[in-house]
Amino acid sequence: MATFKYKAMTKEGMQISGVVQAADQYAAADQIRATAPVILSLNQVREKSDSFWNMEIGGNKINLKNLSILCSQIAITLRAGVPIARCLEMIGGQTEDKLLRKIFLQTAEDVAGGAGLANSIKRNGPQLPATLIETLRAGEESGNIERAFSEMAQYYEKQYKTQSKIKSALSYPIFVVCVAIVVLIVVMVVVIPTLTQTFAELGGDLPVMTKMLIGASEFFSKYWIFMVIVILAAVLAWKMYVKTDKGIMTQGRMQLGMPVLGKIHRMSGAAEFANTMSMLLSSGLNVDRAISITAKTLNNSVLRKETESMIARIEEGHPLGECIRDCKDYPRTLQEMCAMGEETGELDSSLKVIGDFYTNEADTATKDALAKLEPTMLVLLAVFAGFIVISIYLPMFTMYNLM
Questions:
Q1: For the sheet containing 2-9, what is the strand order?
Q2: Per-residue model confidence as pLDDT tens digits over 158-217
Q3: CB under 8 Å to 388, separation ≥6 — which residues?
Q4: Residue 102: CB partners within 8 Å, gap ≥ 6?
Q5: Reduced DSSP (H G I as helix, E B as strand, rest coil) percent helix, strand, coil of the chain, to 5
Q6: What is the torsion angle, in degrees rounded to the nearest 10, for the CA atoms of residue 297, residue 301, residue 303 and residue 306?
Q7: Contacts of 184 (CB under 8 A, 6+ apart)
Q8: What is the pTM of this model?
Q9: Residue range 49-53: average pLDDT?
Q10: How far apart are the C-alpha atoms of 234 and 397, rounded to whole Å?
Q11: How far apart are CA 174 and CA 177, in angstroms?
Q12: Using CA atoms, how far apart are residues 366 and 116, in angstroms rounded to an integer?
């Protein structure tokens, strides 16, 4: 389907404008003539280019907090009886997020011209999450768009809070690592060469630890450019590898197989699955369509592939509880809750409960891992600092004798 902008004249002589979706220009003209016999102009709307020059300053990434607030405001305004096109224009024009403002204002214009909400917002905001678009589509079909926006507001608020907790917990360890790297560079490139020159002028035999430290310093001083190139090349090669199908699966297996982080990734994946499924089912989508959308939103590639494998079996008539039991990487509790929810006819509420459970479990596991990581980092830094201090002070006794 293509989109066409038009200007036309009604039977009463009033000039109108808008957009229509049709297979071609002739079909679009037929649609317009049903209400406005005289067509003044009819032009196809070209798809937005993703080139560098057309990108918004600040990136193309959707801010979940702003999206949650926007959905909440739209839901409240719709509840007050404001038409959807006017609502999108009013709320979209007020937001400070430039990307969301552009998307929703363009969508308001399309909807005012007679286009569907879900199709318009998908066309104007291809970077928007699939959960938002499909939930709005379900809201359109059921005639309850206000509830769809309300569900989206709660869903993205929960996602934003989870991401904020993880970022906050990781901020201190990342800061410590950055400081340690800066100190290491200063010691190896500035301090050690100065001491090496002093030791060489005085002569004498140096301790083994001091020789090791001097050797490491000389290596860093001579080959630091080579090391930077190797590290950058390795990072670039890994990024290119994980864009391939094999690389994506390898990364997913590594995430689930790590000693401590693997458990966190597994519980986070279970929380993502349960929360997304619960929200989509409560919005009116059927199970097979909800599974298809949920699979697209999962971060881990292994869990995503396992979820996609359930679609065909569910379409054949198999229950969700039976299909999810074949997914070995989902926790057993999630599998049992899905089966129990289907049997009782309360699948969406059961998934919401288990989603909240695994969200809290993942949060607790992350905090525990970071609580163990911080003293471990301090011990390693203390050992490293102690090695440097001892290596420097051991030759001092020899220097005093030589002086």
A1: 15-22, 2-9, 38-44
A2: 888 877 877 777 777 788 778 877 877 777 777 777 777 776 666 656 777 877 877 877
A3: 187, 213
A4: 56, 124
A5: 75, 5, 20
A6: 100
A7: 384
A8: 0.66
A9: 43
A10: 43
A11: 5
A12: 42
DSSP-derived letter for residue 317 is T
Please give the structure tokens belonging to residue 267: 């519980």
Query: Which pLDDT value is given to residue 53?
Result: 39
Q: Which residue has the tokens 């934003």?
A: 160
Choose the weakest-confidence range: 169-173, 244-248, 278-282, 295-299: 169-173
Quick one: residue 59, left, alpha or beta (phi over 0 = left, psi -120 to 50 = alpha)?
A: left
Amino acid sitting at position 263: K
DSSP 244: S
Rounded distance between C-alpha atoms, residue 296 and residue 20, angstroms = 29
Average pLDDT over residues 327-353: 87
Tell me the DSSP string of 218-231.
Answer: HHHHHHHHHHHHHH
- The DSSP result for 150-217, as a single string, is HHHHHHHHHHHHHHHHHHHHHHHHHHHHHHHHHHHHHIIIIIHHHHHHHHHHH--PPPHHHHHHHHHH
| Residue 48 DSSP code | P
Would you state the pLDDT for residue 400? 59
Query: Which of 99-113, 318-332, 350-364, 382-396 is predicted with the least confidence, judged by mean pLDDT?
Result: 382-396
Q: What are the structure tokens assigned to 221, written together?
A: 């001083």
The amino acid sitting at 218 is: E
Is residue 274 classed as helix, strand or coil in its secondary structure? helix
Query: Nearest-CA neighbor of 261 among 369, 103, 354?
Result: 369
